[in-house]
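Subject: mismatched residue count in predicted assembly?

I count 1237 residues in my input, but I want to confirm that the predicted structure covers every chain. Input:
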Amino acid sequence: MAGLELLSDQGFRIDGRRPNELRKIQCRLGVFKQSDGSAYIEQGNTKVLAAVYGPHEVRGSRSKMLHDKVLVNCQYSMATFSTGERKKRPRGDRKSTEMTMHLKQTFDAVILTSLYPRSQIDIYVEVLQSDGGNYCASVNAATLALIDAGIPLKDYVCACSAGFVNDTSIVDISYLEESGGGPELIVATLPKSEQIVFLEMNSRLHEDNLSKVLDVASKGCKDIYEILDRAVREHVSKVSHSLATTD
Amino acid sequence: MKLDKRERHLRIKGNQGRTVVRELYLREDVPCQSDRCIAGCQNDGKLSTDTTHYIVPDCQIARDYLEILETPEVTGIIFTQTAVNSVQHEGSKRLFTRLQNLIKDGRKASVVFHNEFHKYVYIERDPGESLNHWQIKSTYKACEWYYNHFVGDVPIVMLTNDQQVIKEYEDKTVNIFVLNVKDYLKGFWHNLDGIVDLYESITTALDNKSKDYSGYLPSDILETGIKSGRYIEGLLEVNRHNASTEAFVRQSGTSQKDGEKMEDIFVSGMGSRNRAIHGDRVVVEILPKTQWKGRSLAIQQDDGEGRSICVENEKEASPAIPTGTIVGILQRNWRDYVATFSAEEEGSSGNKGGKVLVIPYDYRIPKIRINTRQIDKLKDKRVVVRLDSWELGSQYPNGHFVKSLGTLGELETEVSAILVENSIQSLPFTENQIKELPVDTQDNPWKMDEKEIKKRRDLRNSHLVFSIDPKGCEDVDDTLSIRELKNGNLELGVHIADVTYFVPPGSLTDIEARSRSTTVYLSDRRYDMIPPILSSNLCSLISGVDRYAMSAVWELSKDLEVLNVWYGRTVIRSQYKLFYEIAQRINEGAEEDEIVENIPELQNVSSADLKTKIDELRWAVNKLMYVARILKSRRASGGGLELDSIEVRVEMEESDVEGLTPKDHLEVHETIAECMIFANHWVAKKIVEHYPNQSLLRHHPLPRQDQFEILVKCAASKGFVIDTTSNKTLADSLNRCIDGDDPVVNKLLRQLAVYAMSTAQYFSTGSLPHDQFFHYGLALDLYTHFTSPIRRYADIVVHRLLLSAIENINCDHLDSNKVLDELADHINIKHKAAQNAQRDSQELFQSLYFKDKKPSDEQCIVNAVIFQLRINGFLVYIPRYGIKGPVYLRNKEGQVVYINKQGDSEWLSGSINKDDQSISVQTIHGSQTYKLFNHIIVQLNLQASRAHSASLRYDLLSNKPLKEESSNVEGANSTIKSDIVKVLTYLIIS
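Triage response: the counts match. Full output below for your records.
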């Protein structure tokens, strides 16, 4: 058997997308009633749930409390059934810990932290099904959940990945494309101000191509923003409508 | 645009039957890729519009009969994605690469249709449906879509060999024909010679095909083995002169990279070669040291039927070297082979049909077993054969017959055999390619475009432009100009034919030129890279007509330092088309009469103008030679290797192996070469500056030190020391190796130096570190090919690069590094093939030259110089013809040759002793010793061979040189040359 061809000469990717096309995104806000904010997102076959609690007073050891800003507490976990082979433990392994830290860094930068000194915000992210772009889907889901919880943000934060195959940048890469071993660039941006909140790259990429791949990834973030924004507006109008009728 | 998301459940092989879910996005805008489209697809129009119908092969046909689809005449094939996937998953990697190349080849006008991404063509595989059934259904659906897409305008032919399918779908839609391959070929291609035969032979080959790779280790074990260093991968190279026992595995990866030498691994005998064939990428396991063997040091004699004779007591061998046995094959590298039926086969006329052994033309390939029913028809023909498989336990590989080249021994047959053996395409240019190009006939002469002229710098009246080429040259691609500027500086201009103006990237001519990569010059003919309308007319910078050119113009100070350089498109009119000899004569101060007689452009000039014109020309030629002389000495002194003998220069630069007659060497040859090197160097500078990662350059790596061994040994025997540490020291020590009595010594040493060199190669700058860009032979840090776009594709690429560099366009529209890297490899291979073909054709003509000569003829008894000693003989160089060959001191019966007192040679029993410097023959009559650089006389005997090319045998005649010849080598050359010319013209006419 000859190796897989990630990008055909006619410009189709393995799943039928063109290089600049995102996977199908579906999302919902307010999926849980118990938490302050929650959201569910599907990016292709990657499915993520996020729940936000807070701001509330700092729980656990009070020494973690910050005097000038809010403490952002994240937890990233992957369901044991989320991958092809059953996972042994949902969190606490190196990969999850790293992902937790990345999420914390990202949201520390976007939440207006100085508004809530001495308090805490919890963000719980659960990957239900994993098919590439776990970080991106987690960030996008958490953004929606934070918005649902009404926590003030500088802007939406949208994350998107990009790869580089046959001298072409491909956006929003799936698990199959990730595992090909090519370069992978993950970026989280504030779409309005075009600021980069988080940037990570795996494998090697020639520096001349970096800007190309980065452009494609940022474009992906903007596209995702459009979709998230639409979902938020829809959700808000629905909620306000239902509020109006109950009054 | 809306995509439709589906999910596809796949069962992955070797994954314990688990299924994975993959996404699938369906869309409506999968392009049909044809210009016939009226639905407004986003098309590149690649699919042929000339064909009367489109072919859609099903999966099985795409896998098994790809060869039929590869036939150049068959165009307009639509491969469904289903078929491509099936080839990819079920076929070999090689098959898939072939399929990809077919699709990429613009001349085939064939495409992949992504039916599985199309909303209305994709069919979901029902649970429990067989793969085959689903594939057929999908393929037919694609046919239907295409048919409806062109509103029934174009008939679609679906090829399948499944009778049931044909029955099922045959009458479903009018004008969608479901045919099997045989009926299709008979119906549509009955006038195409041999295609049905090809079909038949593939079918029979398929029938007795079995899994080939049994007996080799599984690929995952090989892979881990290679990674852990247990096994080594490399290319198998069989020793041409000892094909049945000696082969080497050349390790991949260049030796320079990690500094350590990558040794070749010896594979001894057919057993450990384990069914690998020359050129295959193999995996080898090194044997324990106790089983290592040495290679044979004897020169092998051949009995003309491919069996080499090895006399028992000659089993002397070199010290043991790493020896291995082949455990697996990563990639077969089979090509088309020319083969001939053996003489015995011819005799047994009872053998009709069934299996026959054929002997390949190439010594390195084992005999091939083919199935044919046409033995009687083909017994005295040369045929093309392709390999299919080599089963475990079979002595010979299986193949099938492809086509016949013609009767044995005929010139045309032999030339086409050379072309096939070197994988050179020799088809004429197609009508479509010619149609793209401008016409220039008597009634409809080609004219320059006024608008285009305005865009260019016009040099027609300001510069004296002329060309210097060999006599009778048709494709003039370089011209020169030189003049003095008002401020006293010199202005040197090199003007090159502007081929890229006529050949836009991606055009049919461009695709064809790219695949040919170079014009192939054989002894009596040439195969052009671009159609003759361009190569010998519109692009050729003939004198007296206006032509487009690409120019590089330097302003040189009085000390010949470059002050500034201008590159760009120009319009020129060459004033004189000189040939080398007359240019040299002008420089030497020829009289007016002689000049006028030899330059047609001056013949109708009034006598008043004549003087000034000649003076102008003389000044220009003299100045040019002066400038070139300085440039050359500067390059040489800058640490440069000056391999200044003509053979060496030609070998390095034009990749031309010196012919039967060593060429005359004039200074003006060097002048032109130097100007071209200068232009190439400056163009390389420019393009690298603009496109540091995607320029096409030519580099010449350092030679491997161990290759110098023979040279050093040879020189030492004469008391010379060769210092090979750098190109400069090598050149200096070569210059010192001059034997006052024997001019051949220096010449020979220089040739040996050339053999030690690695070959110069094209490469893309993005794929090599910067410190490997240099050109060792020319001693330049950057070098490329710019000056011959008519006959080399690399120059066309460089022209395009230079044009974008001038206009300062960013690199996005250019070929990326990856594409360029592949292209560079392709051009390198083609160049090598062209060189080999040229050498083969020279050998062919050499043998034709000696064919009618009796061994006693004066032409066959020649002087020779010993340059290398072997255990049973030595290798000699024959200055008169510029050829090299082996002389055996021991014959098949084990007797040795002895020169008796009368000066005749006779075969006696005796022994041979060899040491570092000499080889001696001992018989009862006494002993005779031969040393390196001894002059001897040999007799040339042509040995005809049925299956292979004819070769020369060299018989020792005397151990003393011919007297009269050594004094008059030059004179002999000229007579021989005319003889050869006579032979050639005779052959061409007949």
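The mean pLDDT of chain B is 79. Marking this ticket as 'not a bug'.
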